[in-house]
């Protein structure tokens, strides 16, 4: 396979997905997805549970193998794109009781792929970690145990860890899922700031955020229902959730 | 009176063996409890019984057989877990029983009187020889070394394996390595508490240390100390009451854990009431 050598097109794409299908055993989680994410974009991915949002994210990360189709991240295969992608997982996937401090977590983002025997974090690593913590606004918590953090603080710490990778592309899986409203606001304003220097792809349930924050929108329901500007219309909402947009607006938007 | 006991070679050996056992348990125990690999470790331990039987049958040192088979089981279980096709607990269950069954088969096929295998099943710390000590020392050293030289990576792997693999750390390699280390720890522990009782020594000191220690290194060091304490106390108890040392150590560990757990429970209840 040839990546990023066929002229101008691919160079501007942070992520290029062509006809992607991922199956778990025989059941397709996503089918026939083609999607280009431009460099500098801020893409929000929405869709119902089981719609394949997380699967799409995992395919970009190289954590699941596609049954067919192609993905390239800055012209490289997924899984070979280490140090290009900063990943922010869902909080619920992690053990909050793990004995580690906030700064130590951020430092793990600086580990290099090749093993260095007797590796120790240097003073410089520490200072860098502190910088990232300042950037996400939780510097004063640097020596706290992670078990003492609130949901919002934990999420910010994970963003700082992703930044420690010094990525060109930031992938976030529901960054505001277990976070209070004011932290969510802070996280969104942080993300728009970060978007000035990196591409962002965010899976979210937060429809309000989608309309106000992201630049482009992708709607997943097993396949790619919509990809484009942030103006959702009736037809798309129906294809996504099976009922018109009015209901989404009036009923609890965030919990869908 | 207690001091005069130390004049005996077998008591010295028992104490040294207890220390080695506590070291591997403290280090590996913390990792397997955090990564939820306790049953997998149980599987690896029990499979090694097949190796013990094999050793007797073919006439080589049974502990070498145990090492060989448990490493094989570790790699096998690791491979199947990674492929994720068959549910790994099914495979662990099968390995667990198959290993034991092979052990029984080999022993049954041996000509002459069957050897007494209770020391492998339940441990017999007072019969540890100088040769055993050297053997245990070597494997304890390997375990400590491998964990120390890659400590930063182990920490990242334990906290968030997925993230570690995304930034390019070879987590698959680390997982296999961990399984082999578990197999080696099993071999160190067999003489002290025996195959069947190993899980208690892997979990109890670690769980207590987990309630007390706030960082990973400290948690390991503390569980080594708590493990030693249980081993020494168990040793003494087995001497006084004339019961099997492995059983004494395990019962003490379980009681110790329950005691600390209940203390913590009451403490947090009291704190809640004050608030």
From TrEMBL, chain A:
<dbReference type="InterPro" id="IPR050153">
    <property type="entry name" value="Metal_Ion_Import_ABC"/>
</dbReference>
<feature type="domain" description="ABC transporter">
    <location>
        <begin position="15"/>
        <end position="247"/>
    </location>
</feature>
<keyword id="KW-0378">Hydrolase</keyword>
<keyword id="KW-0547">Nucleotide-binding</keyword>
<protein>
    <submittedName>
        <fullName>High-affinity zinc uptake system ATP-binding protein ZnuC</fullName>
        <ecNumber>3.6.3.-</ecNumber>
    </submittedName>
</protein>
<comment type="similarity">
    <text>Belongs to the ABC transporter superfamily.</text>
</comment>
<dbReference type="InterPro" id="IPR017871">
    <property type="entry name" value="ABC_transporter-like_CS"/>
</dbReference>
<dbReference type="InterPro" id="IPR003593">
    <property type="entry name" value="AAA+_ATPase"/>
</dbReference>
<dbReference type="InterPro" id="IPR027417">
    <property type="entry name" value="P-loop_NTPase"/>
</dbReference>
<keyword id="KW-0067">ATP-binding</keyword>
<dbReference type="GO" id="GO:0005524">
    <property type="term" value="F:ATP binding"/>
</dbReference>
<dbReference type="Pfam" id="PF00005">
    <property type="entry name" value="ABC_tran"/>
</dbReference>
<dbReference type="InterPro" id="IPR003439">
    <property type="entry name" value="ABC_transporter-like_ATP-bd"/>
</dbReference>
<dbReference type="GO" id="GO:0016887">
    <property type="term" value="F:ATP hydrolysis activity"/>
</dbReference>
<keyword id="KW-0813">Transport</keyword>
Automatic annotation (TrEMBL), chain B:
<keyword id="KW-0812">Transmembrane</keyword>
<keyword id="KW-0472">Membrane</keyword>
<dbReference type="InterPro" id="IPR037294">
    <property type="entry name" value="ABC_BtuC-like"/>
</dbReference>
<dbReference type="GO" id="GO:0010043">
    <property type="term" value="P:response to zinc ion"/>
</dbReference>
<dbReference type="GO" id="GO:0055085">
    <property type="term" value="P:transmembrane transport"/>
</dbReference>
<comment type="similarity">
    <text>Belongs to the ABC-3 integral membrane protein family.</text>
</comment>
<feature type="transmembrane region" description="Helical">
    <location>
        <begin position="166"/>
        <end position="186"/>
    </location>
</feature>
<dbReference type="GO" id="GO:0043190">
    <property type="term" value="C:ATP-binding cassette (ABC) transporter complex"/>
</dbReference>
<feature type="transmembrane region" description="Helical">
    <location>
        <begin position="192"/>
        <end position="213"/>
    </location>
</feature>
<dbReference type="Pfam" id="PF00950">
    <property type="entry name" value="ABC-3"/>
</dbReference>
<feature type="transmembrane region" description="Helical">
    <location>
        <begin position="12"/>
        <end position="32"/>
    </location>
</feature>
<feature type="transmembrane region" description="Helical">
    <location>
        <begin position="92"/>
        <end position="113"/>
    </location>
</feature>
<feature type="transmembrane region" description="Helical">
    <location>
        <begin position="63"/>
        <end position="80"/>
    </location>
</feature>
<feature type="transmembrane region" description="Helical">
    <location>
        <begin position="247"/>
        <end position="266"/>
    </location>
</feature>
<keyword id="KW-0813">Transport</keyword>
<dbReference type="InterPro" id="IPR001626">
    <property type="entry name" value="ABC_TroCD"/>
</dbReference>
<feature type="transmembrane region" description="Helical">
    <location>
        <begin position="37"/>
        <end position="57"/>
    </location>
</feature>
<feature type="transmembrane region" description="Helical">
    <location>
        <begin position="220"/>
        <end position="241"/>
    </location>
</feature>
<protein>
    <submittedName>
        <fullName>Manganese transport system membrane protein MntB</fullName>
    </submittedName>
</protein>
<keyword id="KW-1133">Transmembrane helix</keyword>
<feature type="transmembrane region" description="Helical">
    <location>
        <begin position="133"/>
        <end position="154"/>
    </location>
</feature>
């Amino acid at each position: 396979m040839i990546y990023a050598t066929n002229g101008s097109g691919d160079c501007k794409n942070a992520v290029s997905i062509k006809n992607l299908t991922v199956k778990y055993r025989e059941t397709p989680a996503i089918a026939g997805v083609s999607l280009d994410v431009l460099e500098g974009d801020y893409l929000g991915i929405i869709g119902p549970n089981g719609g394949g949002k997380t699967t799409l994210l995992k395919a970009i990360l190289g954590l699941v193998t596609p049954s067919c189709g192609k993905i390239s991240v800055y012209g490289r295969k997924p899984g070979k794109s280490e140090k290009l992608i900063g990943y922010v997982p869902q909080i619920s996937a992690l053990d909050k009781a793990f004995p580690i401090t906030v700064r130590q977590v951020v430092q793990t983002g600086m580990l290099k792929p090749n093993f260095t025997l007797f590796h120790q974090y240097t003073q410089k690593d520490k200072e860098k970690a502190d910088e990232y913590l300042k950037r996400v606004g939780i510097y004063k918590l640097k020596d706290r145990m992670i078990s003492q953090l609130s949901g919002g603080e934990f999420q910010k710490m994970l963003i700082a860890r992703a930044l420690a990778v010094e990525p060109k592309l930031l992938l976030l899986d529901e960054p505001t899922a277990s976070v209070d409203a004011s932290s969510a606001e802070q996280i969104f304003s942080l993300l728009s700031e970060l978007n000035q220097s990196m591409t962002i792809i965010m899976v979210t349930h937060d429809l309000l955020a989608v309309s106000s924050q992201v630049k482009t929108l992708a709607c997943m329901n097993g396949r790619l229902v919509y990809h484009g500007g942030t103006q959702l219309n009736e037809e798309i909402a129906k294809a996504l959730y099976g009922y018109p947009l009015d209901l989404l607006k009036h009923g609890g938007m965030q919990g869908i | 009176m207690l001091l005069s006991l130390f004049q005996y070679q077998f008591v010295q050996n028992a104490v040294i063996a207890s220390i080695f056992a506590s070291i591997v348990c403290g280090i590996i125990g913390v990792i397997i409890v955090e990564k939820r690999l306790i049953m997998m470790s149980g599987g690896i331990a029990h499979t090694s019984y097949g190796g013990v039987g094999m050793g007797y049958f073919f006439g080589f040192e049974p502990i070498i057989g145990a090492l060989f088979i448990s490493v094989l089981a570790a790699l096998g279980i690791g491979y199947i877990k990674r492929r994720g096709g068959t549910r790994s607990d099914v495979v662990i269950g099968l390995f667990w029983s198959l290993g034991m069954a092979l052990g029984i088969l080999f022993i049954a096929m041996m000509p002459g009187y069957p050897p007494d295998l209770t020391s492998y099943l339940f441990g017999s710390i007072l019969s540890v020889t100088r040769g055993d000590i050297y053997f245990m020392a070597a494997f304890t050293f390997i375990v400590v070394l491998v964990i120390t030289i890659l400590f930063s990576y182990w920490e990242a792997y334990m906290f968030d394996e997925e993230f570690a693999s995304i930034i390019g750390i070879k987590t698959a390699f680390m997982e296999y390595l961990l399984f082999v280390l578990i197999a080696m720890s099993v071999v160190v522990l067999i003489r002290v508490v025996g195959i069947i009782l190993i899980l208690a020594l892997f979990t109890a000191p670690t769980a207590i240390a987990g309630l007390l220690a706030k960082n990973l290194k400290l948690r390991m060091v503390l569980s080594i100390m708590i493990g030693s304490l249980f081993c020494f106390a168990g040793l003494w108890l087995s001497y006084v009451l004339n019961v099997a040392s492995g059983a004494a150590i395990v019962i003490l560990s379980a009681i110790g854990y329950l005691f600390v757990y209940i203390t913590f429970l009451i403490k947090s209840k009291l704190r809640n009431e004050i608030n």
